Amino acid sequence: MSFRVISLGLVALIAVSAPAFAARKSNTDSAIAATTSEAFATQAAEVRKDMESGGRYGNISSANRQKVDAQLDFIGNLLQRKGSVDALNDQEKVQLMNAQEQANSILVGYDDQQLVCEYRRIAGSNRKEKVCQTKREIAKAREDSRDSYRRQISGHQNQEGMNNPGSR
User: Fold this and answer.
1) Under DSSP, is residue 133 helix (H, G, I), strand (E, B) or coil?
2) Quick one: pLDDT at residue 134?
């Protein structure tokens, strides 16, 4: 397989992933899919906004935020110089794809809208059922469970104190 065929494949992959980003109908779409300088500027601004507190990637660490910002800057500068993916040479296309993949791989880990599915055993049965939730829903359920446990423990301790007032 020649380098030309591989590079054409990369260009096709970039071209195919751009509409998926624009539609953003699924939770598995990439956050970054650069095509033109103008389109990428809009995408980069959206990703940077989503990395702020309360955004889609709001829980990203500052170190990873800096890595993503560096990749966004690299892609933006490359597309600014060349105008679009079509104007890039083969090496630049590979660099672009690598920068996109690095940023996307970091962001996917912090995407609280990412769907996570698992099989859970149904109580009283050997059957399993598929349960899908977003990372945000999983975190909320975990937090609610902790809060409920704390309330039960504190309520139990309060009842013991009321039943045995001389123990203090």
Assistant:
1) strand
2) 83
Question: Can you read off the two tokens belonging to residue 60?
Answer: 């990203």
Range of the domain at 40: 3-110
Q: Is residue 15 located within the same domain as residue 95?
A: yes
Write the CB contacts of 103 (distance below 8 Å, at least 6 apart in sequence): 31, 32, 47, 67, 68, 71, 72, 75
**Residues 83 and 138 occupy one common structural domain:** no
pLDDT in tens, 21-62: 333 333 445 566 667 888 889 999 999 999 998 888 888 889
Q: How far is 165 from 168, CA to CA, in rounded Å? A: 7
- If asked whether residues 58 and 140 sit together in one domain, one would say no
Q: Which long-range contacts (CB under 8 A, 24 or more apart) does 82-86 make?
A: 82/37, 83/36, 83/37, 84/35, 84/36, 84/37, 85/11, 85/14, 85/15, 85/34, 85/35, 85/36, 86/11
Residues 19, 99 within the same domain: yes
Q: Are residues 103 and 124 in the same domain?
A: no
95, 60, 57: which is closest to 79 by C-alpha?
A: 95
3-state secondary structure of 36: strand
- Strand, helix or coil for residue 84: strand
